[in-house]
Specification:
single chain, 113 residues, mainly alpha, 4 helices, 87% helix, 0% strand
């Protein structure tokens, strides 16, 4: 599960940075400076990476067997500027706790048999 956590973590940070670039660089340049070039690159890049982020978030959510509310929180992280960094930290911490519990349970199961 550590691989799923790491994939999620990397994409959460990248998508968070890209969303900040969209909101605070691309959009203002397009609207106020009449320069759509940065937005033409940043916005689609964020969109594509967000889709990959959703796939990684779903993979982690499925492996941890969290409730749907947790997935909604993960999805919203890529839509609200700066939220990705807070959600990523919380999700990674909780996912590592679940992974440790699953590993302890798996190590205990053969001993009981």
């Amino acid at each position: 599960m550590e691989a799923a956590i790491n994939r999620y973590r990397v994409l959460a940070i990248i998508v968070g940075v890209m969303l900040i670039l969209v909101c605070f660089v691309g959009f203002p340049l397009r609207v106020f400076a009449d320069n759509g070039t940065p937005s033409a690159f940043i916005s689609p890049t964020h969109g594509i990476l967000y889709i990959v982020y959703l796939a990684f978030a779903y993979d982690l959510w499925r492996k941890t067997a969290w409730p749907l509310k947790q997935m909604v929180i993960m999805v919203s992280a890529g839509l609200v500027p700066f939220l990705a960094f807070f959600v990523e930290k919380k999700i990674v911490r909780e996912a590592r706790e679940v992974a440790a519990a699953q590993a302890a349970q798996a190590a205990e199961a053969p001993a009981q048999a």
